[in-house]
Amino acid sequence: MADRPLHLLLVDDHPIVRTGLRMLFQSEPDMQVVGEVDSGAEAIIAVQKLHPDVVIMDVAMPGMNGIEATRQIKANSPETAVLALTMHEDEQYFFAMLNAGASGYIPKRAAPDDLVAAIRVVAEGNVFLYSSLARFLMKDIAEQKLTATSEDDGLTAREIEVLTLIAEGSTSREIAEELVISVKTVERHRENIMRKLDVHSRVELVKYAIRRGLIQPE
Known about the structure:
By secondary structure, this protein is α/β, with parallel strands linked by helices. It is built from 10 helices and 6 strands. It has helices at residues 15-26, 40-50, 66-76, 91-100, 112-123, 134-143, 157-167, 172-179, 183-197, 202-212; strands spanning 6-11, 31-37, 54-57, 81-86, 104-107, 128-129. A 6-stranded parallel β-sheet has the order 2-1-3-4-5-6, with helices on both faces. Strand 3 (54-57), helix 3 and strand 4 form a beta-alpha-beta unit. It is globular, with a radius of gyration of 17 Å. It starts with 5 loop residues before the first strand and ends in a 6-residue tail after the last helix.
């Protein structure tokens, strides 16, 4: 992916929104819009055909909404990142999109620079949560009292190191360089961590790391 621009798919039922997004991304040398559709159902088909790196997904659309579209896209193309871009800033939509597999959630009122930054973050396999919406995540964490200790979660010292770096947003390559191990070893640690903790997304790993006190939320 480093030798070509990030391939983006725009999903929004308002043509004027897609036009504005396309113009924004055309000014970014590391981004290229490879397709745009106006429904969740079309998004699923487009992902299979175009194989974008990131899908910029509206949440509320006629017919199939962005939540169900995201769920199906992640089931069929788990390597494709989905970034929710929406006017809805309530807890219900926020968690619905994250639980469906979205790697980020940003409101349409956000500054263009924030959106561009969010795309780069999720393209690297990391999580982007707009600052004003992160309170939903913190509330959820506060309501989930952690009962496990460092001894009974089954993680080794190395796995805790890897988990902490993942939660801080480091890529597999960055983790490998910092810990002086191979990328393949990092990926194996990641798989073991997710299996032991019975979690299925980076968002869940971040929540666990915060509850354990491994990282501090910004």
